[in-house]
Write a structure and sequence with these properties.
Helices cover about 45% and strands about 15% of the residues. The chain is α/β, with parallel strands linked by helices and about 290 residues long. The strands form two sheets. A six-stranded mixed sheet has the order 2-1-3-8-6-7, with helices on both faces. A two-stranded antiparallel ribbon has the order 4-5. The protein is globular. The structure holds zinc ion. Zinc ion binds next to loops.
Length: about 290
């Protein structure tokens, strides 16, 4: 679950106002990008025109772990996302030639959001796919004059989320405000240089464009091939997607608090269908980018 209702949704402005240390980490993660800019164009393509751009590393992130996330009547989001993610790992390695998969977790133990991004960035990932299940908040009804909370099991279908950018000036101002001069490392100071901020923004825009393109391909496969209901592709300020230096999407694979969808999400057939759908979208995305040069 990662919707506006109950999960790790962080409006961009909220990220800015608090936690200066997180902002430093944010800066540092993008310093890696800036260093990489010497060998990459904004298209994410190597400047060496003799070697074509290839998608080599796909990071699969099983949402939650450590007893967090949404719950159904007999299963939990953390169990379902891990089962789907492990199947997805095998399917990608078998069916998407020339790619390896890096997992952010392979056990029920929780992994922090920053660690997930760190794993993805350290692996030089080309694509980050976070697997989640959705859930609705309780409805409040009035029974005999008293307000009562009842489960809302009406949620259906899929949703793809990409990180909402667009507050770059605000981010830069917040970073400056919260970093004491003597604490700022050379790299962070370099990042705040206006020329570097322009490069950084261009880089982020490229991630956003490809994230939206891939999310659209995943959504099309869910809707047109599988006939799943969908809320489509949305942009939200989701922290796990914000620190990854690569195109990144979060897939809500179904509503675990809807009994029918919980059965589907827990079934072998359901999990295999979801995995096949994501794999087809990866193949399409890979072919599109690799043929672009
Ligand atoms: Zn979730």
């Amino acid at each position: 679950m990662n919707s506006i209702f109950a999960d790790k949704v962080y409006p961009g402005s909220k990220i800015m106002k608090n936690k200066p240390l997180e902002r430093v980490a944010y800066c540092l993660s993008f310093v890696i990008c800036l260093i990489s800019l010497s060998s990459y164009t904004y298209d994410g393509h190597s400047q060496d025109t003799t070697s074509k751009y290839k998608i080599k590393t796909i990071v699969v992130d099983a949402g939650h772990g450590g007893h967090t996330g949404a719950k159904g009547s007999y299963s939990t989001e953390e169990q379902v996302t891990l089962a789907i993610a492990l199947k997805l790992q095998k399917a990608i390695e078998k069916e998407v030639q020339g790619t390896k998969v890096v997992m952010t977790r392979t056990t029920p133990a929780g992994v922090s959001l920053q660690s997930r991004s760190d794993i993805a960035n350290a692996a030089n990932g080309d694509l980050f796919i976070s697997i989640h299940c959705n859930a609705l908040p309780d409805r409040v009804v009035t029974v005999h004059g008293k307000k009562k909370r009842v489960p809302d099991q009406s949620g259906r279908g899929v949703l793809e989320l990409v990180y909402r950018y667009g507050r770059d000036n605000e981010e830069a101002a917040a970073i400056r405000e919260n970093l004491f001069e003597e604490q700022a490392s050379k790299e962070v100071k370099a990042m705040l240089d206006p020329a570097n901020l322009i490069l950084l923004n261009e880089f982020k825009r490229k991630y956003r464009k490809n994230s939206i393109m891939f999310a659209g391909m995943v959504n099309d496969e869910f809707v047109e091939t599988d006939g799943r209901p969908s809320d489509g592709v949305k942009e939200q300020g989701i922290l796990v997607l914000c620190h990854t230096a690569m195109p990144s999407i979060l897939i809500e694979t179904g509503f675990i608090d809807n009994p029918k969808e919980e059965d589907f999400l827990n079934s072998e057939d359901g999990q295999n269908e979801i995995v096949s759908t994501i794999v087809r979208a990866i193949q399409k995305y890979k072919a599109t980018l690799e043929q672009a040069l």
